[in-house]
Write a structure and sequence with these properties.
It is a single chain. With 428 residues, the chain is α/β, with parallel strands linked by helices. The protein has helices spanning 9-15, 25-28, 35-38, 46-54, 75-83, 96-107, 125-129, 151-155, 163-175, 189-200, 248-257, 277-284, 291-305, 339-342, 345-354, 357-366, 407-411; strands spanning 4-6, 65-69, 88-93, 114-117, 133-137, 145-149, 185-187, 205-211, 235-238, 241-244, 261-266, 306-312, 368-370, 375-377, 383-384, 390-393, 396-399. The protein is 33% helix and 18% strand. Strands 4-3-2-5-8-12-11 form a 7-stranded mixed sheet, with helices on both faces. Strand 13 and strand 14 (375-377) form a beta hairpin. The longest helix has 15 residues, at 291-305. It is globular. The N and C termini lie far apart (51 Å). The structure holds S-adenosylmethionine. S-adenosylmethionine binds at residues 12, 19, 22, 24, 26-27, 69-72, 76, 92-95, 98, 119-120, 137-139, 142-143.
Length: 428
């Protein structure tokens, strides 16, 4: 019983005056002159890049009420509102200071935004019931974390246990979350409670991003970018407070237990960058030459240290108006996406198990990198036009490795994203 509850509530309510040196990805990309902007495939601020990616999964016209929790300086919401005129917008933040900054930033764009100063864990259920998309960008780590727990503490919380520990224990039991296999471990109780709250309110679309303790670098970049990931939430000491990295697998499991479809990956999925010879040199150098190079290096590492999790409630967002998923036309459009970037470790492990050296050789050879608006092979600069296993069977597309295709392909639902011609942008 050595556990401790860490909370940043007092810091955010009373001490916080600015984000200080807590440079979020959103802040890193806000200034067009930032060295991080110079290496992007698409030169745009964070919110624009996120919005561009979100639209593939979320029909913006169907989002009547957009809620952002912990919006910092309001820049992400500003970028989203410039892309789409969401009819109702609510900003929730525990920090009175930051809420004022948000009013200032967003007041220049829209006058009818609702601002709520509150701890998200106290936000009323009814408000969330009416929300269509809720965004929590880089703030789950601020929510309470219980450290140094044992299996016994979690399975049988002592009578004197805090409400957070009792709530965490109930979530582990209720959703069958795997208890970590180590003598003692940390649990992101606040993040789990926040997600449970959103799922209970049946918000159709929920987007989360945060520093992960389970980060994985995508295959094409593994030789260049290394990020440590212990699997157990790690403490990060920041100005005036401590945060914890997030165990996304627990959040993902909870979401799936609540009937959501999930999309998960590194933030690099929606922030494409150019792996130019200079960027390669920065990443390969034993230590950075200039401050600017150091900023770029940290930024690139962060693109993989930070994960996102998008939750979609299939029932409410069925692509066809009658709720049924339409039949695939086998047009092959979804196979024009980048194959290498969608491969997961489970696919690699399976191909290794199955002895599919043919596939593994192609994966190694493709080494795809984003060159602004198309993919090229990092090895020889070849223009990559799509999946190397796409083949044509008469007038329709086929897959040369169908029986062992990547999980992303197996799980893809026709009409679930803009890449598919069956996608309907004007969903109700
Ligand atoms: C690291 S900043 C992220 C800001 C912004 N989303 C970004 O990506 O730049 C964390 C934000 O979450 C807010 N926050 C922290 N704990 C919160 C809580 N329990 N409820 C609501 N907001 C919270 C902070 O005040 C701050 O605005």
């Amino acid at each position: 019983m050595n556990f401790t509850l860490h909370s940043t509530t007092d810091y955010h309510r009373r001490e916080l005056t600015s984000l200080g040196w807590e440079t979020t990805l959103c802040n890193a990309l806000a200034d067009p002159r930032s060295p991080c902007r110079a290496i992007l495939g698409i030169d745009a601020p964070y919110g624009q890049l996120l919005g561009r990616w979100l639209r593939r999964h979320v029909p913006f016209p169907a989002v009547s009420h957009l809620v952002e929790v912990g919006g910092g300086y309001g820049w992400l919401m500003g970028d989203l509102l410039r892309q789409h005129p969401f009819p109702h917008v609510t900003m929730i933040d525990i920090s009175p200071k930051l809420l004022n900054v948000q009013k200032d930033t967003l007041g220049r764009i829209r006058a009818d935004i609702a601002y709520r100063e509150e701890d998200f864990l106290d936000t009323p259920h009814d408000l969330l019931r009416g929300a269509d998309l809720v965004i929590l960008n880089e703030n789950l780590g601020d929510f309470p974390t219980i450290t140094d727990l044992t299996r016994e503490d979690l399975e049988n919380p002592p009578g004197t246990a805090s409400p957070e520990l009792r709530a965490a224990g109930a979530l582990f039991r209720g959703h069958d979350l795997p208890i970590p296999e180590r003598a003692s471990f940390h649990v992101n109780s606040g993040a789990l409670m926040a997600l449970e709250k959103l799922c209970r309110a049946e918000v159709p679309y929920i987007f989360l991003s945060e520093h992960s303790c389970e980060a994985v670098v995508s295959i094409p970049y593994r030789d260049l970018i290394r990020v440590p990931a212990s699997g157990n939430p790690e403490c990060i000491v920041l100005k005036g407070h401590k945060e914890f990295t997030i165990r996304f697998s627990h959040l993902e499991k909870l979401a799936q237990a609540r009937g959501y479809r999930t999309v998960r990956g590194p933030v690099a999925d929606y922030i494409p960058f150019r792996l130019t010879p200079r960027v390669r040199a920065i990443l390969k150098a034993p230590s950075p030459w200039r401050d600017e190079d150091e900023i770029v290096r940290y930024f690139l590492e962060d693109l993989f240290k930070y994960e996102y999790l998008l939750l979609v409630k299939e029932r409410e967002t069925g692509p066809a108006q009658d709720g049924a998923t339409p039949a695939c036309r086998r047009c092959g459009k979804c196979c024009l996406a980048d194959f290498a970037a969608y491969i997961r470790d489970e696919d690699l492990a399976r191909w290794q198990r199955e002895g599919r050296r043919d596939i593994l050789a192609v994966v190694a050879r493709e080494d795809a990198v984003w060159a602004g608006d198309h993919l090229v092979s990092a090895a020889d600069g070849r223009y990559l036009r799509g999946c190397p296993f796409l083949m044509w069977e008469g007038d329709h597309a086929g897959c040369a490795i169908y029986e062992t295709r990547p999980a992303t392909c197996r799980n893809f639902q026709p009409a679930s994203s803009e890449i598919c011609p069956l996608w309907r942008p004007s969903w109700p």
